[in-house]
Amino acid sequence: MKKFLLCTIALSITVNIFANMASPILPGTLSGTVFTSDYVDILKEDLRIQINPNTHRALINVSYHIRSDSAGKQIPLLFHAINYDGNFQLSVDGVPVKILPIPEDYLLMPGRPMDGFAGTFIQDSESIIPSVKIFWEKDIEKTYSLTELQYVEVDWTEGEHLITVSYEAEPWIDRSDWVRVYNYRYSLSPAKYWRSFGTLNVEISVKDFKALIETNLGEPQSGDWDNGMVWTFDTLPTDAILITIIPNISRVASTFISIGTDGIFYIASFFLFVLHVCLIYRERKTNLQKRISKMVWIGALLFPLLAIIALNYSYSFIDNIIGTHASRFHGYYFLSVILYPIIVPFYGLFMWLLDFVIKHHLKNRKQPI
Fold first, then answer.
1. Which residues contact 359 (CB under 8 A, 6 or more apart)?
2. From CA 72, how far away is CA 69, in angstroms rounded?
3. Nearest CA to 31 among 189, 140, 245?
4. Cα–chain-centroid distance for residue 65?
5. Which residues 6+ apart lie within 8 Å of 7 measured at CB?
6. Is 230:221 a contact under the CB 8 Å cutoff?
């Protein structure tokens, strides 16, 4: 019995090990605010994030109210504008402007046209191409070569202008637990390099989405999730805005998650064991002379296999109850079948001893007093 229990525990542990063979994180979009030239003041940034409950994509709309000290053809802004889902659109004073990758000769050219961003650049001694740093979480940063950024070139007048940006962002998806957790990241860290910081207005809406929604922005000043939660800041509140959405699931799904696949395996094993004992007992009642009950070996081969099948099926069973937001990330749990030939002999030996006990018990009951 002890050896059988040890094998059962080993089985459940092995399945858990198989389930951790790949990364549970599906990367999404890393979006953020702009780098500005040192002749531009940001008077106000309006950021609106609308999360679609069906596609889980986030529609990002940003408006920059700026003031320029000079006129003419210039490069006022740099963008980290990659890995977006949907068209990245930008307009200056209502006129669409094409977004372009930074040519390498712009970076190597002395003087114009990139001098206005000199205070933003990091010059690595091993590379002639400068780079910039962007924070995506607190104390978590990544360095990007300027060749990974994009720019806009505009011909405008001195004074105030409105720049608008829109695009769709994919969520980061954490599948490390039964239910998917959706994360959205918007970096504010480039604003550290702005010549001035005016007002930041943030509005986040998640319409008709039944979920737990968390941000690192603190309590909003007004609004609701359907129509938009609103925050207003006059200083940089954080390096990056993080939005986390944990979908609600049914009470039935929560119950089965609490039971878990190991629990389902143990329950199935218990009922199969009881059924096996009943079949052996039933056969022994009609045949006490046979040396070994045929049900011992039939059950020893069949019931451990049925328990392993129940274990393997339990993953998709719980996922189907959870529904759309199930992580469905469980690794190679089907490899648990490799323990079948190890369990069978121990289980068979235990049931053979139990059959022996049952046979002698029934014999003693039939003997006259």
1. 284, 288, 293
2. 11
3. 189
4. 34
5. 339, 342, 343, 346, 347
6. yes
Chain centroid to Cα 170, Å, comes to 11
CB 32 within 8 A of CB 80: yes
- Average confidence score pLDDT of the chain: 84
Distances (CA, A) of 153 to 41, 57, 92, 101, 264: 17, 29, 10, 11, 62
Evaluate whether 84 touches 31 at the Cβ level (below 8 Å): yes
How far lies 327's CA from each of 25, 46, 208, 244, 331, in Å?
10, 34, 21, 16, 11
Give start-end residues of each CATH 2.60.40.1730 domain in the chain. Answer: 33-247
Alpha helices in 80-152 (DSSP H): 104-108
Q: What DSSP assignment string belongs to 246-291?
A: EE---HHHHHHHHHHHHHHHHHHHHHHHHHHHHHHHHHHHH-SS-S
Residue-level length of the chain = 369
Calculated CA dihedral for residues 90, 95, 99, 102, nearest 10 degrees:
-120
The pTM assigned to this predicted structure is: 0.80
Helices (H), the chain: 2-18, 104-108, 251-286, 294-322, 340-366
User: Cβ distance 168 to 59 under 8 Å?
Assistant: yes
* pLDDT higher than 80, residue 4: no
Spatial distance between the Cα atoms of 11 and 22, rounded to a whole number of angstroms: 20
pLDDT for position 19: 46
The whole-angstrom separation of Cα 83 and Cα 103 is: 19
Alpha carbon distance 187, 182 (integer Å): 17
Q: pLDDT digit string (tens) for 206-227?
A: 987 788 999 999 999 998 888 8
d(CA 37, CA 323): 48
Cα–Cα distance measured from residue 261 to residue 318, given in angstroms and rounded to the nearest whole number: 8
Which CATH fold topology does 33-247 show?
Immunoglobulin-like (2.60.40)
Cα within 13 Å of Cα(132), Cβ side: 24
pLDDT band at 318 (very low <50, low <70, confident <90, very high): very high
- pLDDT at residue 366 is higher than 80: no
